[in-house]
Structures are given as C-alpha cells and as structure tokens.
Structures
1.
Amino acid sequence: MRSAGEIPLRHRGRRRLLLVGWLMGGVVVVGRAGMVQVVQGPQWEAMALAQHRETVEVPAPRGSILDRNGNPLAASHETFRVGVAPHELDPETVDQVLPRLVSELKLDRKTLRALGDADRKWVVIPGRFPPQIQEPLRGIRGLYLERELERYYPHDMLARGVLGTILDGSGSGGIEGEFDGHLKGTPGAEIQARGSGGDPIPGPSVLLRPPVPGGDVVLTLDRDLQEIGHEALAAAIEETGARGGDLLISDPLTGEILTLVSLRDGNAAGLSAINAPYEPGSTLKPFTVAAVLSHGVATLADTVDGENGKWTVAGRTITDVHRMGLMSLADALRESSNVGVAKFAQGLTPSLQYQALRDFGFGSPTGVEIPGEAAGTLRRPGDWSRQSPASLAIGYEIGVTPLQMVMAYGALANGGKLMEPRLVKEIRDHQGRTIERSEPRVVRQVVSAATAREVSRVLVDVVETGTGTAAQLASFTVAGKSGTSRAYGVTGGYEAGAYYASFVCFFPVEDPQLVVYVKLERPEGAYYGGATAAPVTRATLEAVLAARQAPIDREALASLTRRQPRTTPPPGAQLASYSPSPIPPVRTLRTPNSPETGAVVPDVSGLAPRLAARRLHALGFRVLLEGSGTVVGTDPVPGTPILPGDTVRILSRSPGDG
C-alpha cells in the first residue's frame, strides 16, 4: 500500500525521462553556443564586419603624354567632390563654418540653406574642386572630401587623333589605347565603412595598399609645330571649301614625326593620315623616275615623244594638261607629264616596277606606334591588267597613306634610306626615369644616294619653275611635287568633280631637315595640288622658321644662302651636265646709303613674332628671333634698305620684361 505523498512509479519514470531530455537539450544548446562563439566565432565576426565595411579600389593617377620638349598633351587632373553631413556639424561652431564654406566653395543660397538644416543627413556640394581646397577645409567636422581623377587635355583638340581618348577608365584609340597598360598604373585598395543598407558611410577610410601612378609616354611631336600645322590646314580647308585634309611634318634623317594633323568636317579626332589610303596621282611620279634611273632604263637627259599630250596604251588614253612634244625624263617629272613618265616606265618589267614601289614602303604598314594603321594597296604583278604599269607609273591603281608618302619622300631627301617612322620618343616610369628610348632605324636603302640627288634636283625645278612655284621660300631652296587625283564616291567609281589635291616637299635641299606633306580632300573651285596644297606648305615652313623653339638646326640654316635664280634648260635639252648654279657667297647687311638696294625693312612692331617673321620672309629676308612676346623693333631699324637674303633680327619682349 502506497504512503501519502509518494509519487507513483509510472510518473517517476516520466520525470526522469523529462529531466534527461532537458539535460540533453541544454548540452546541445551549450555545445552549439560554444561552437558558434569559440570555433566559428572568427568566421561569424568576419561576416559581420563584411556587412559594414568594403574593400574598394583606389584608382591610380594615369601617366602623362608629353611632346618632345616635355609639354603635357594629356595629363591626369586631380579634383575633389565635397559632401557635408549637416547633422554632424558642431552646433557651437556652425555659424563660423558656413561662411567659411561659402568663401571657399562659392555656395549658392539653395545649398547654403540645405547645409543649415540639421535634419538633413547628407548634402553634396555641386561641382568639382581643385586640390587647393583641402588645406582650408581640413578639420571641419561633418565635411568629407572624395578624390577623383579626370583626364585633362591642356590644348583641347590639338593632336586628339594621335592621343586617343578615355572610355570607362581605359584608353581607346591613339596613344591612350596603344599604351593603356603603361599609362594606367596599378590601382590601390582601401577599406570603406558601409551602413545597414549597404551604402557608404561618410568618413575617413583605411588605406590598405597605395596606388602606383602610371608612367609617361614622350612623343616625337612638337607642340608648337602641331599648332602651326593645325592652323595652316584649318585655314586652307576653310579657304578652299575642302571636306578635310592631312598635314604631316617629319625629320627625314631620323624618321621622327614632328606634326600629324588630320581634320575632317571640323573634327580633329580622326587619323586619316594613317588609316585612309588614297590614290596619290602625280606625287608618286618621283618614285617611278627613281626606279627608271636606278635600274638604268634611262637618264634624266634621255627623251621620249610627248605625243602632244595624248597617248593611247593598252586601250587606255593618257592625257596631259600641258601638251608637249619631245621631252626628257627631267622635263616629264618637272612638268608632271603623264605621257612622258608612263612612257619611260615601259622600260621597267612588272617585277621591277612592283619591287621599286614596295621598297619605298608602299603596300605595307610602316610600323608606326599607333593602332589602326592601314597598309594601303599595291597588288602583285600577277593581278595587274595590261593598263596597270602605266596607271601605277602616274599614281593610280595604288592606295597609299599620307604617312607612307612622307616616309618615302624622306628617303629621297636623306640619300635613299627609308626610315621607320617614330612617333614615340621615350617611355618613362612614374618617377620620370627613362625605361625605353626609341632610336632611328633604317628599314632599307631604297636607291643610291646619287639617284636620290638626281631626283631631288628635278624636284627643285618643280618648285622653281614647274607646278609647285607656290611653295617657294624667299631664302631657302625647296624640293617638292604636287599631285591631283580623282576621289571615289560612296557608291564606287570616281565621283564627278571630286579630287585630292596634295603637295610634298623637303627643305632645305642642300641639307634637308624637314619633309612637309599637305593633302586637301575635295577642294572646291581650283583643285590642283600646286594651286591649293603648295601654298599651305609654304605658309607652314614660314611659320616653322618663325617659331622660337622649332626643332630645326638654325646654325646649319644660317650657313646656307639662297641660290641665285637660274634658267631652266628648255624641254628636250641635253642634261648630261645638269646641276644647280653655284651658290653665291654670304651677303652682308647694306647701309641705307648703299646703292645696291632691294627692299626696305618694314615696321613690324606690335606684331606677334610669328607674324612678323612671315612678313619678313615674304620680302626675301632671313630672320633671327631674339626675346619672346610682342615685337618691339628690328635690327636693322624699319626703313633700312637691304637686299633679299640679308638677315633681320626681330627684337621682342614679353609684358613682364623690364
């Protein structure tokens, strides 16, 4: 019999089971808590921290693109965005802080009212601000600065086709694209706090790894010459109504590209100078003549019948602007006779003609350090028609780029050596140390120095008495050739009334320093290269001579004198002893009483040095520049009678000079 208060046996078992259950549950809970807190604690802590902070990339300053003299053409521009948390501003000092912000950031009334509203959590000040704002705004509670890097082009659209651009933080086209990996640098990293919603929390960040700035790229371009070329080409396009054009200046001895301008429909961001082949027409004839001379097919004195300006070959009739009878090879080139040059080229086999053009660099890329270069078109002889040899001889059935043409004329100027074009001079690291430097490279010896001189002598005549007289300089001898070729339409075939007008020259002939190329696309009215493009080369050369820091050897130029005008041998004359007249001795300045006077020194006071130099060059005087800024006088003084070829010093002074 059970005593009072005694728990029945069946209930006692249940309580034991319940107690064991509770004990086991407690052990599981404690064990799980220990697992979470001790074993998995660091992992959960890291996850919690990750929800409130983020590792973000810190962009590196992009390296600069410089001209040959170290002038920046593209650079990274550091700016700051300014954000303010009004509720964080110190109430005791807010009356002093707001006027300070107004003064430094030029705040408008609307923004100022927003900053005074303590209920506002965040206000972004409109605009971007220079680094100089950091110092005066440092230490203001509730104010945060966010650094940004922008690409800055100090000269706006100058050389933009060469430079390229930045898209989504990466270089696109031009030097920006080609050297993107070197220019962009290595990004850094920092930790930034985030709120519960994942948005960044204003405040200082923790820098984990500093960014490494990108390196610099130094070009062979000269900023001043690029400006000169841009202005000259833009003026010519406006004057002639052309759709666009190209202008290049190179150093024939080194292959350096000093100026590269491509304009089309008012846009300077294109690169038709390297990626838009065209049929050159008569500017190709010097290379045909060089091949004829080099392979012994004819001499400059040998003659052919000009057929009175009309000759049919392989079913095609070739015509000349000027009707000529018996002409020498020199006459054919000087007068740009299609008939004469095509007849002389008949002595070349297709293989020799093809190889000669190939050796001058046509039909293959030049290797310039910029993306998108076109190879042009030069078909193999097996693909030629019966008309092809005559067409190629006068610059048709071939596609060349302006850059190829500049390098080919450089070979005629430097003694027959085809140079590889150089657009990049140096590669520097972010500390300014040169890690790579390009050197002049000869691709091949195309023709002998003697052959190059023979062709050059005739090209002097082209400028003196032939189709390129508009390119003459008063004080120096220029060798050049004009070209006029038909342009294709959008539907294929030649477009009626559409032409390319071009002119290529090198100067001075005695010791060439520059090759200048100009092409105008679809000029209106007068469209011949000698009438439209040649004057642009002259204006360009005059401006280059007037430029204070132009990359030319002025001492070498000063040692040269203007060759006396000579009588060109008549068509058909024997040219066995054909050569320029002897160079006269250096002239000295004449006094006002000298009986042998040519012109008087004009008053150029108040003009820019470049403009003054052009005016003096036009009168046949040599020019030396002294000082910088506005012209204040000349030596000899205005009104002094002197001879063409004499030297006039331009005296100039900047506004800050004493």
2.
Amino acid sequence: MKSRPLVFAACALVAAAGLASLVSVWAVHAIERRTVAAVKYRLLDAGIHWATVSADGLRLRLEGTAPNEAMRFRALNVAGSVIDAGRIRDGLDVAALRAPEPPRFSVEILRNEDGLSLIGLLPGEDATARGFAEAAGKAAGGAPVSDMLETANWPSPEGWQASLDFGLAALKLLPRSKVSIAADRVRITAISDSAAQKRRLEADLARMAPDGLVVETEISAPRPVLTPFTLRFVMDEAGARFDACSADTDRARARILAAGVGAGAKGAQVCTVGLGVPTPRWAEAVEAAIGAVAAMGSGTVTFSDADVTLLAGAEVPQARFDHEVGELQTALPAVFSLTATLEPRATPVPAGPAEFTAALAEGGRVELRGRLTDDRLRGAADRFARARFGSQAVHMAARLDPDLPAGWAVRVLSGLESLALLDHGSLLVREDTVEVTGVTGQADARARIAQILSDRLGPGQTFRVSVRYDEALDPMAALPAPEVCVERLNATLATAKIGFAPGSSEIEGGSAATIGALAEVLKDCPPLTLEIAGHTDSQGSESGNAALSQARAEAVLTALAGRRVATGGFVARGYGEARPIADNATEAGREANRRIEFALLGAPAPAAARGAA
C-alpha cells in the first residue's frame, strides 16, 4: 500500500514537466511572432517593401532581392535596430546591375527665310553631326545653318537612317517648316502658300515616306491674298447669283451670303475668305449694293477693291434707278467709289460690229477669229493662246483692223486668260463688253474669271460671265465625300474585325488584311480630319480599360501610317468602357463592346458598322 503514494508523486512530476515544456514552447512562439511583427513594421516604415521576415527560434531570417548593395545594408541595419544583430541571418540578394540604356536620339530642324536651326542628339561622333549639318544646308538650297547638334558614341537605332533621309527630303520641299526626327517617327509642321499646295505637299510626303515609319504631318494654308478684292452679284433672267465673292472674315462671308439669299440666290454659293480687303466695312457695303440690285429687280454690281460698278438692267425704270443709286451712294462707306449705269434699251445692232471671238472645243482646240489691231497684238494673242491651250491646238484666223477702239488688246488678252479656265466655251470681245460663256470643271472658275476681268478692264467697264460648273469635269469631285469615306471605313470593320492579343494593344497578324483594306479606302479619299476611337468592355478597372483602348486606337493609327496613309489629320482616342453598345453581362455583348470606330472630328460617332477589337 505504501507504493501507491510514490506512483502518484511520480505522475505529478511528469505532468508538471510536460506542462512546463508546453509553456516554454508557447512562450518561444509568442516571442517569435512579436519579433517578426516588430521587424516587419520597421522595414515597411522605412519604405523597404521587397524584404520578407521569418523566425527560427530566437533567430530572424531576412530574404528578398535588394535593388542595390546600399539598400541591402539598410535593411540589415533597420532589423538590427529591433533585435540584436547577432540573431539576424542574412538571406538577402542584390539585383544584377542593368546595362546602361542608350539615349533617345532625335533632331529638330527649323527652316525659315533666315536659314536653318539644328538642335538634337545624334548617334556617332562629331563628324557625324558635321556631315548632317552640311546635308541639311544643301537640302535647304545652301541656306545658312545654326548648328546646335550634340553626339553620343552609340550605335544608330533601327530605322534611324531612313528617318534622317526622309526628314531631309521633307526639308527640301518645305521652305517654312519644323521637322522633328526620331528613329520611329517624323513630325512635320509647315506653312503652304495655298490650299492646293497643301494637298500636293501632303500627297508628296505620304508617297515619299518609307514603309514602317510613322509620319505626322500638319501643314497650314494661310488665307489667300486677293488682288483685287472682287465681288460680283448678278440678277437677270437666269436668276440671282454670285459670279464672284470675296470676304475678309467668316462673319463677313456669312453676312454677304445671307444678303445674296435674301435677294433670291439659290443653291450653294462660293465665297472666298482672303486677305487684301480695302476696308473692314466691306460686308456692309456689299449688303447695301446687293439690296439695291434686288430692289431694282435686274442688274449687276461689281466690286473691285473700293471701286463699285452698278449696271442696272434695261427694263429698270429711270425713277427706280435714280432712287436706288441715291440710296446706295448714301449707304456706301466713304472709301468706296460708285459708278452707276442704266443699260440702254435694246436697239438694232449696226452691221459689222468690231469684235473678236475665240471658240474652245471640248477636245481642247481653239479657233481665234475676228479683228485685231496689228501684227504685234496678233502675235501676242497667238503665243498666249498656244501657251495656255497647247501649241498644236490653236488656229489663228483673225484679220487686222488698225481702227479698233482703245483698250482692245487688254480686252482680248484678259478674255483669253479667262477662257483658259474653261473645259469648253467661247469668248466675245466688243467695244462695250467682254462675254465669257462655257462649262468648267473648276468650282471657283466663275469667281476667278470675274476677278480677272474686273482687274484688267478697270472700274466702270461691263462684262458678262455665263459659266456653268460641271462636277463630272472636276477631278476633285470624283473623290468621295468625307462622310462616305467614314461609312466605308466602318463598313470594312463590320465585315473584317481588327483583332488584338488579350489585354494587349498588339494587333494580331490575322488582321493585316483588314488594315490593308482600311488603307485602300483612305487612299481614295480626300484629306480627312478623322478620329480613331478605341472601346473596351467593362471587365477590369476603369482606368486600365481607358489606357488599353487608347493604346489600341494608337496602334491602328500607327498601322495605317505604316501603309503610307496621310494621317496628319487623324487623332487616336480611347474611351474605355464609357460607351457600350451592348450588354456587358453577356459574352456576346462584351465582344460587341470591344471595338474600333472611325468618325469625322466634330461629328457624332457612327452608330453602326463597328469592328470588334
């Protein structure tokens, strides 16, 4: 019986030992957790997010990859400020040093009447910069060069030489320009002399651009200088119309056209906004003159700078003529000079009037008949006609008459200059008038003829212009309207989608045919101001979708530029998930929402014919 207390005592000792062991283990783990938490807090507070902390008993292990050796020592020091440094085990690595990246090479060329300015960084040695400066000066016709180029001894990046060559070629074409050259992109900003020259330059640059090079072109065309500043409004049996129209501002143009419409002009009327107006009150004077013609019901008013010539129709009563001329004289600003004439009523024309005629056939042949003053005028008219119509297309059959009225040579030559703007038609020159009649393929031919005759004949002289514009003869009219081009682009996308890698802006190889089809559509269009819009579904973050759609729209723009499309007026915009066209809750809806669209800048985005992205 004495052995039982001994057994109980032994069991108690064993239980106490086990309990002590458990308590000690728990205490060690508690210390480990607190130590790890304290070290982690200090590391994060120091901005060290790349290190991890783990405990092994009373020892602490740091692991991770430090960006450099200094950051590795800093992490150890921070941990050592919490626990004894002897308890820290260093498992940190240091990121391998990256090779230095090459600089971004670029050159900016400024060219104006004073010469060239070159600034930028070229790959190579100093001799490379000198050679490029010499080439740029030669491309600019020997213009003086201000060389601020620097060099870095690195290999040329891919595409660099092609970009330089294209930039120099562009510089040669553009006497007032800024050309910014990089290996993958050339930006051109320039000023042209006219809208027609602007179109030619854009076409030449697009043709010259090497494959794969992104070319951004912005060429502005200043308002033309109109000399003389001309306007001609006619009201006769054919109706009311502008034979020529000029305005100094858009607002003045709107006022003048509104006055013409109020007087009975119908259809589209062309009015050129240009420089050279004799007074800021031009629109006010024109409105008054058109109002006078409308009140008389028949007549012609011609402005040539500040000279105003009013010819009232023969059927206008004398009292009405006197009243309206008096009102117009009062309404015209002081700078204008008015010559008003009431056309006499028709009387029999004397036999054998002095006249000169030119007949331009549809094939281009010109027959010159009638009377000329002398051999000098005959030779001048013949040479002028051959220069304008072709040396083999002119037949001269005019006779000489030294008793012709004064100013006959000016009337003949200005009439031939006007006739050259027609596809076919006729010219009649008499003492009291010059008449040009026919059909043209130039939309502004009637206005230009009126300007030529008004300038050459002088104030107070009468002339008639009966010219019809035929769209079939206009090579520019054969181009589709901008709205039609956008419809064709979106129709192409509706049948052949542009595919992108998931979550990427990289165009899939299978979409090359679609990009090619879009490029073909654009090459048959006039220059456009176009928006390439990228859209996504609602999966992912809103900011991420906006960035992805922008990158995809830019990828399409780059791909079109690589196909030699003139993209100077194009803008890439990403709308992300903001403009859905289907339900994002279904796969089919999300597929429809992932798309690329084309739209004219300033017009609403198309509602149909979309391409999925």
